[in-house]
Amino acid sequence: MASENYVGRTIAGYQLLERVGEGGTAEVYRAQHPERGACAFKVLRPRLRGDPTAVKRFLREAGYGSRVRHPGVVRTYDYGEADGLYYLALEWAGGESLAQFLHRSGPLAPLAVAHIVRQLADALAAAHEAGIVHRDLKPENIMIDPATQRLKLLDFGIARDAELPPEERLTRTGFFVGTLQYVAPEALSGELVDGRADIYSLATITYYMLTGRHPYAGRNPRELFQQLLKEPPLPLNRALPGRTFPAALEAAVMRGLARDPAKRQQTVTAFAAEVEAGAQGGPASPRRIGLLGALKQMMSRGPRER
User: Which of 9, 115, 122, 272 is deepest in the core (most CB within 10 A)?
Assistant: First the structure.
């Protein structure tokens, strides 16, 4: 059944201008507010309005996001119910997703990757300090603004409050949440995870930014699931034929990908520090051009080259 289109309506003071995305639980609109300007406006799907758990999860995302105040995290402006709709108003993050950027650019230079990792680690550290574990960190949930080289972390839809007692958590035991290519192994059984799960996801993103590949190459979800539980990830320096990375950089990334959370770096900032140190440890390379150089290089390519 086709979902209702709210373009042109004004809800809770936000004028909905354009539908820009949709997911399993909500639709996203570009909206305008008289005081806040451009905003992202999420509306819970009509079929879920009568589901108390779905409503609670949706409002939980808003509550979690509002607790994290950091320049690298999309700001939550407002949320609640209006005109029979559950909504969430967010800061409008300009630019494009990191997934789109990487699709066009291909693998990035180590220093450019380290620059991105540091920004993401600082944003995640702010979330962790607020007691929030993101649990769905992936390139699609990260926005990059080519004009400013700044990144924004978004989508706390499946985040978890590390301080809630077990009976108040909404995770179903025995079911994992997240995106399989980026989810930490300990989450696959549905067990409660801490900030080290975000470290694993950040390490997977780092691996992907450097190589254009994932640490596991399962051909389908079942195979990938089994690999995550039983096999070691492919070493970084074997991922991309003809390209090698400094030993310290490989060690940092592979440590972040350890199956045992206790063997990873214990904070996202520690992971970023090791990546930064490793990225500076190799010989000069023509691809080590930094994020700004990568952006300029992309923009100068013709359509076929992209």
Answer: 272
Q: Which residues of the chain have pLDDT under 70?
A: 1-3, 156-178, 190-191, 282-306
96-300 topology per CATH = Transferase(Phosphotransferase); domain 1 (1.10.510)
The 10s digit of each residue's pLDDT in 208-255 is: 999 999 999 888 888 888 888 889 999 999 999 888 999 999 999 999
Please give the CATH architecture assigned to the domain spanning 10-91. 2-Layer Sandwich (3.30)
- pLDDT tens, position by position, 14-32: 999 999 988 778 899 999 9
Residues in CB range of 94: below 8 A, 6 or more apart: 143, 145, 147
What is the residue extent of each domain of the chain?
10-91, 96-300
Q: Which two tokens stand for residue 48?
A: 């879920």
SS3 content of the chain, % helix, strand, coil (to 5): 40, 20, 40
Closest by CA to 113, choosing from 259, 277, 264, 257, is 277
CA distances (Å), 145 to each of 93, 97, 121, 153, 203, in order?
8, 9, 17, 12, 22
**pTM of the entire structure?**
0.83
Is residue 278 within 8 A of residue 252, CB to CB? The reply is yes
Contact 72, 119 (CB under 8 A): yes
pLDDT at position 178 is 53
The residues annotated as belonging to the active site are 136
**CA-CA distance, 277 to 145, in Å (whole number)?**
25
Distance separating alpha carbons of residues 189 and 114, to the nearest angstrom: 31
What local confidence, expressed as pLDDT, does residue 292 receive? Answer: 55
